[in-house]
Specification:
Elements: H1 3-32, H2 39-59, H3 65-87, H4 94-112
Helix pairs in contact: 1-2, 1-3, 3-4
């Protein structure tokens, strides 16, 4: 992989990570919108979802879809679970925390696995 391809891949992975964080934000906004009955949380959901999907779509130009999508959903799932436990009063327990760590390990493993860009 030449430097330009490497730089494109790094940028694409950064986009996936940021998209995953926006996925967490849109999931939390969705919860707080209370069935789209609260305007500002509903707008937050729409904006965060739009940003998340746009960033993911842009990253998919340079990354394999299966790996990028799995990383995006993993970040969103783990991030949402952590935010739920820390800020929204979701139950906290050893099994839940270990499960989140397994998601994170899977995301890291997918990034460490060798793959071609296309």
């Amino acid at each position: 992989m030449c430097r330009s391809e490497w730089e494109e891949a790094v940028v694409a992975w950064v986009l996936v990570v940021v998209a995953g964080l926006f996925e967490t934000a849109f999931a939390v906004s969705l919860k707080n919108s209370e069935g789209f009955s609260r305007l500002w949380w509903t707008l937050s959901f729409v904006v965060c979802a739009g940003i998340s999907f746009t960033l993911l779509t842009t990253a998919l130009r340079d990354l394999p879809v299966g790996t990028a999508y799995a990383v995006w959903t993993g970040i969103g799932a783990a991030g949402t679970a952590v935010v739920g436990m820390v800020l929204l009063g979701d139950p906290v327990g050893t099994v839940r925390i270990l499960s989140i760590l397994l998601i994170v390990a899977g995301v890291v493993g997918l990034n460490l696995a060798p793959s071609s860009a296309h």
